Amino acid sequence: MPVSGEQSRWQRAVDALRPSEWRTLPGRAARRLRARRRWSRRRRVLTALGLLAVLLVGPVVAAAGYLQVAYTGDPAADARTRGRDALWLGHAWVDGRRSDTELKALAGQLRGTGIRDLYVHTGPLEHDGSLDPALAPKAADFVARAHAALPGVRVQSWLGDVVAPEKDGLHLDRDEVRERIAASARQVLDLGFDGVHLDLEPVHSGSPGFLALLDRVRALTRERAVPLSVAAPQIDPVPGLGRVSFALSGHGKYWSADYFGAVAGRVDQVAVMSYDTAMPVESLYGGYVARQTGLALAHTPAGVDLLMGLPAYWDDTPAHRGDAETVRAAVRGARLALGPGARRNFGLALYVDFAATPDHWAAYRDGWCA
């Protein structure tokens, strides 16, 4: 029933009363006013919570839908190995723990695949950038035996360490540290390695010190006519996400697309560490790898080899769900992003030899090498 002007004025006057003044009202009116005030507050709270849910959940649902779609369809028929794949090898190969029998088994494992590069862990570097030769006493011997057992395969020295300021490690902004890292690169090349693979983490997006280091080391690798390669973090899935993530966590997980391109332009080979994504299911992880592959393809210079990492290991942490981040999903995601007639200097890189299972190898072979 319509409310008269007099009733409306009365209602407004009642609404204006403070709770301490409700006792001046008749009992029934006071009860009605209390109920109305309680519902009004509840409605405001529920409305605020609903808006917050939309703001938080909406983008997540949209992103999940996008990744699901990215993982659908059939890969191009020619999205297969180009003979430019790689494998990260653990430290046991250069400290004397691996035998000739195991090297022979490795050679059999690689036969029929597209693996051309081995990244052999030779460090870690000291925090000042130097490399203790006692860490890899059998390095030169392994390189010689690997060349004999694996003709045509390049054996690169994998040098790594944690990076300041996020970690207590390398200060890449210091010229003397960069010079020692370059000297360490010369040290491993003198042992017979066919290239240098740098895995320094976490390098924050935009770091000028890392770019200066790459310029310094590449001058050496060009002089020796060997490749310089880097392990790179993931690219911002959405522009600006890396800045937001860093502001919230203090961890430099992503590089901007522009910084990724600046790094890729200073090396001969870049391998994206496309794992530890926190994706909860396999289809989302595969779609995420497809997205990362597309971004990396768009920002890697034509003359630079691009490789996408495969998670050939098991872990179950908030950052890595073993049943979601599979080699199978990563291979399919990369293939979906390639498209017909895509660049030839593209490959996949398995991390890591000592954790890889027969199922991991089968997923790589069947999905990529068949």
Determine the strand fraction and express it as a percent band.
Answer: 15-25%
Count of helix runs: 11
Overall strand count: 12
Secondary-structure content class: alpha/beta
For the record, give the distance between the C-alpha atoms at the N and C termini, rounded to a whole number.
77 Å
Instruction: Report the radius of gyration as a whole number of Å.
Output: 29 Å
Helix content: 40-55%
Name the strands of the widest sheet in spatial order.
Answer: 1-2-3-4-5-8-9-12
Instruction: State the shape.
Output: globular
Main sheet: strands, sense, barrel: 8 strands, parallel, barrel
The helix/strand order is HHEHEHEHEHEEHEHEHEEEHEH
Low-confidence stretches: none
Mean pLDDT across every amino acid position: 89
Task: Summarize the topology.
Layout: H1 5-15, H2 27-70, E1 85-89, H3 100-110, E2 115-121, H4 139-149, E3 154-162, H5 175-190, E4 195-201, H6 208-224, E5 228-232, E6 234-235, H7 241-249, E7 254-255, H8 257-264, E8 269-272, H9 282-299, E9 305-311, E10 316-317, E11 320-321, H10 327-338, E12 346-351, H11 358-369
Describe what this molecule looks like in 3D.
The chain is α/β, with parallel strands linked by helices and 370 residues long. Helices cover 46% and strands 16% of the residues. It has helices at residues 5-15, 27-70, 100-110, 139-149, 175-190, 208-224, 241-249, 257-264, 282-299, 327-338, 358-369; strands at 85-89, 115-121, 154-162, 195-201, 228-232, 234-235, 254-255, 269-272, 305-311, 316-317, 320-321, 346-351. Strands 1-2-3-4-5-8-9-12 form an 8-stranded parallel barrel, surrounded by 6 helices. Strands 6-7 form a two-stranded parallel sheet. Strands 10-11 form a two-stranded antiparallel sheet. Helix 9 links the parallel strand 8 (269-272) and strand 9 (305-311). Helix 9 (282-299) crosses helix 10 and helix 10 (327-338) runs parallel beside helix 11. The longest helix is centred in the first third of the chain and has 44 residues, at 27-70. It is globular and about 100 Å long. It starts with a helix and ends with a helix.
